[in-house]
Structure formats: C-alpha cells, structure tokens
C-alpha cells in the first residue's frame, strides 16, 4: 500500500515590511536657466520587473498635503527607474512609485522631492525682508508671499522645529506675510506654495552667529 503525505504550503503575500518603499532623488536640486532635471526612483533591491510612475506634486492648502499629477509618458510606467525633465525653469515638487503584475500591485508613493529656482514664476513670488546676504541669530525676518490665491503656506528644507517665536504656521496662511525670529535651525531653503497649485521662487537663508 502506498502512503501519501499531504504538505500544506502557506499562501505567500507581500507583507508591509517587505513592500519596497520608493526613495526619490533629484539632480540638480538648484536650477539654472533651461535646466534638465533627472528624477531617480530608488529603494528597490531588484528593480527589474517593476515599472516606474512619475508625478508632479501639487500643493493643496489649507491641508498640508499634495495631490499628484501623472507626468507625460508615464501613464503605463517606464521600464527605467529614471526620468528626464527638459527645460525646467521654476521651483517644483515630484514623487514616484512603482508597480508590477496584473492586476498591477503598486508601491506607496515616495516622499516629495523638490527642485528650486531663484526665478519667480508669473503666478507666485517670495521676497525676504530685510533682503541681504547675511542673517544673524535672533534677528527677525519677514517672508512675503504673493500669488493668485490668498491661501498659501511656507515650506522649507530642512523643515525646522516650529518655535513659539515664529509667526509662520508652516502650513496655511491667509495674510501675505509671516515673521521668523531666527534661530540656528532656521537655516535652509524657503519657498511658498499656493492654493492655485503654484510654487514661488526659492530663497536660501543662512543664519550666522555674531562674532
């Protein structure tokens, strides 16, 4: 008599811990006139078999979030995990994600990454007062944002701790300006994002200690 042993194999699924988390990088970060920007979607141990989807981040005040608009040529994804943007002139944000299989299994979106330009687009601008090269600890700096919509928010990289000495909410503002009493961790790149979906020019603020 023949004997058979039944072996039960567990159904394998991709657990959240094993799910790839895309990491977007941009090059260059600061734009020159008519610059080309390369987006790279990393975080995959074996990128073959994945298709990559590229999005422009669109700010949505009064929330702190973004919506994502699919980039041209990315409807069905790209085989390459890089994407070239020609002639980028103004500050913008981007995200990526990947998918594979049928039906398509998608990863989460990456965190937004930004490219910055000192040039002001027609619809939005940021100015800093006082307008000077050096800023010092404990001095006040006013950020003035002008754009098509009254709802706007100040963003910075890196994003600072929000001290009580700051009138900037770092989310949504309904006036046209906010003031920061500068601390060391306020050094960074600043820009404005508007309810119209526009980004302003970017300004680099470096906080110096007085000698």
TrEMBL record:
The keyword Hydrolase does not apply. GO terms for molecular function: transmembrane signaling receptor activity. InterPro entries: Ig-like_dom, Ig-like_dom_sf, Ig-like_fold, Ig_Fc_receptor. GO terms for cellular component: external side of plasma membrane. PROSITE patterns: IG_LIKE. GO terms for biological process: cell surface receptor signaling pathway; immune response. The keyword Disulfide bond applies. Keywords: Disulfide bond, Signal. Residues 20-98 form the Ig-like domain. This is Leukocyte immunoglobulin-like receptor subfamily A member 2.
């Amino acid at each position: 008599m023949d004997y058979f042993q039944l072996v039960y194999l567990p159904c394998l699924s991709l657990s959240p811990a094993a799910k790839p988390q895309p990491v977007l990088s941009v090059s260059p970060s600061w734009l020159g006139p008519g610059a080309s920007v390369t987006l790279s979607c990393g975080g995959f141990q074996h990128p073959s078999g994945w298709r990559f989807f590229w999005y422009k981040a669109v700010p949505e005040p009064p929330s702190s979030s973004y919506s994502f608009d699919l980039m041209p040529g990315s409807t069905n994804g790209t085989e390459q995990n890089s994407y070239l943007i020609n002639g980028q002139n103004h500050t913008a944000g981007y995200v990526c994600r990947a998918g594979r299989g049928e039906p398509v299994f998608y990863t989460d979106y990456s965190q937004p990454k930004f490219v910055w330009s000192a040039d002001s687009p027609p619809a939005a601008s940021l100015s800093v007062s006082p307008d000077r090269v050096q800023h010092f600890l404990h001095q006040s700096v006013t950020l003035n944002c002008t754009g098509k919509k009254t709802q706007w928010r100040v963003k910075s990289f890196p994003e600072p701790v929000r001290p009580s000495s700051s009138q900037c909410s770092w989310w949504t503002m309904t006036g046209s300006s906010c003031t920061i009493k500068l601390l060391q961790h306020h050094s960074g790149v600043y820009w404005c994002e508007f309810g119209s979906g526009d980004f302003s020019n970017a300004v680099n603020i470096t906080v110096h200690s007085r000698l």
